[in-house]
């Protein structure tokens, strides 16, 4: 974990929720996307495949597929367009126990 990549400037009056990312608790506000929650907490969405640096997403609108996260069951979620829900558990890498691709 590093220092936050995002800083919340407004809308701090929304209800606080808690999610779990890679097994660690992350605080969020109701209505935040997964990306906002992760980047506010100092986390990264994934590691670069071309270097050793963390990635923070790219397009921020669901087009580039740089922000995939996974549920414990292996379902992919775009962090930039998926709202965080209280109690949600997600991973920045495909869980080893999840089958991929998912059965149809």
UniProtKB/TrEMBL annotation:
The protein here is known as: NAD(FAD)-dependent dehydrogenase
The transmembrane segments are none
Q: Name one Pfam family in it.
A: Fer2_4
Which keywords annotate this record? Oxidoreductase
Recorded superkingdom: Bacteria
Q: GO molecular-function annotation terms?
A: iron-sulfur cluster binding; oxidoreductase activity
């Amino acid at each position: 974990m590093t220092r936050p990549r995002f800083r919340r400037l407004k809308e701090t009056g929304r209800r606080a929720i808690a999610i779990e990312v890679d097994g660690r608790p992350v605080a969020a506000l109701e209505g935040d996307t997964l990306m906002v929650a992760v980047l506010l907490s100092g986390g990264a969405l994934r590691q670069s495949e071309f270097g050793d640096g963390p990635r923070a997403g790219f397009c921020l609108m669901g087009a580039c597929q740089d922000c995939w996260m996974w549920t414990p069951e292996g379902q992919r979620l775009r962090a930039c367009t998926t709202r965080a829900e209280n109690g949600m558990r997600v991973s920045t890498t495909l869980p080893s126990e999840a089958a991929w691709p998912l059965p149809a």
